[in-house]
Amino acid sequence: MPPESGESAHFRALEQLYAEAPINRFFESSLEIPESGVARIRFTIDDRYYHAGGAAHGTSYFKMLDDAAFYAANSLVSDRFLLTTAFNLLLTKPLTSGPVVAEGRWISGKRRVFVAEARLIDADGEEAARGTGTFMRSRIPLATLPGYRA
């Protein structure tokens, strides 16, 4: 099979960048970018992520929503790493043990500032949280980041 090129190669390189990010040693998860402006992160909640009340701590919600929205936006940018500048979060249901999918979608912006949203879907197919983020181009070239191999 020939090596991927263009947009597809960029998506695979972002997926590899995500996989190699040091933070993901603490949050076992996998990223999939099926098309431009869309990102999905699959992960499993277990008691390692619980707060004292026996459900997932908000850290897990924020991390996965931010990442899904971020990668949906960065899928549109092949030269620079984006940075989160703001993120609004709405928690609607406690997450307990089981698989969860974070679905991110780009909403607007294609130059300097991007807006993307994400939602968490639990094993029953119910939404547990949603968020909207604002992301901007940084001065960091993607090609200089460990893990990004287009």
TrEMBL record:
Residues of the Thioesterase domain: 53-128
Protein name: PaaI family thioesterase
Entries under InterPro entries matching the protein: HotDog_dom_sf, Thioestr_dom
Native source species: Sphingomonas longa
